[in-house]
Amino acid sequence: MNQEVAFFLPSLGAGGAEKCMLSLGKGMAAQKLDVSLLVSQAEGPYVGEAAGSLRLVDLKSRSVWKSIPRLVRYLRRERPGALISALEHANVAALIAKQISAVEIRTVVSTHTMVSLMMRVNKRQVSNAMLRLIRLLYPRADHVVAVSRAVASDLSEVTGLPEGAIRVIHNPVEAPKIFTMSRAPVNSTWFRPNEPPVVIAVGSLWPHKDQRTLIEAFSIARRSRTMRLVILGEGPQRPVLEKLLRQLHVEKDVLMPGFVENPYCWMAKSNVFVLPSRWEGLPTVLVEAMACGLPAVATDCPGGTSEILEGGRYGCLTPVGNAPAMAEAMLGLLDRPLDPATLRKRAEDFSLEKAVAQYFDLVAGPAS
Q1: Are 147 and 112 in contact (CB under 8 A)?
Q2: 175-350: CATH homologous superfamily?
């Protein structure tokens, strides 16, 4: 194959798919492949990291759909050997651009969420149109990747593709990088010796991430013992969550500093990680917490969370939206934490090297 592999994303926002594609791109570049990262708009917190390690191509378009003509021109001019995309609208745009360009190129589209649930939060007209495009175009890709078995099953139901035709490749976690970054200091008095234990969550402040239930659970658990809560991440739910903190009178014991470039030093110095989501594709942040040796409580939500924790072997699973159960699990892990070495060992199953090898297998063959 042509040695260039092109990745395509809408932007470099603070999402798991963006982080995954950036890690894969760097991993493939380390294998002496020519890697380009194409984005509709070069914006988001990962722009600096991408520009410093890969060939970053800004298509300078106001939307994914408006970037299609420029993506077509890029494919015709550069003729990369493979095009790997992530997120449904970018996947559809990539497949349209490939068809228009008439270039022989191997296409890999990757799904990072439970599509059926994601569509429910969109307007009905948008969801129906997107579903039609997915059903029409995904069968034309050389490979369709899902980040967990649950996502593969859901995507099969949505698209009609046989589940066996969908390749499951877990999101990669760069454990050595996480270990190095986790040793950095945190500018907060909360992590000094003899301070109360800290529960931490990391994720965008969107409704389906359900930090509301986490805050309610923290309020319940705090009645039993002194503790603190840190929520790293930014999003439209911030005003709602801050209002809830005041209503529950816990605002002095909850810190919400927004998006931070290095969440791992916060994780490594905390006592329990909590993932309160209503659904997930494959929550890489949960594996990252385990790579820091941090025991976790997570909702047993649709998606790959239970796959990571192997049904509760490597952490506590609680029902979605159940604040009392989450509070009980948090208190239990504070009293009886899991072995950090065991958690780090489990995180190694999601190595970057393994994911890069699996994606390379997909792009190394001839284009369709």
Answers
A1: yes
A2: Glycogen Phosphorylase B; (3.40.50.2000)
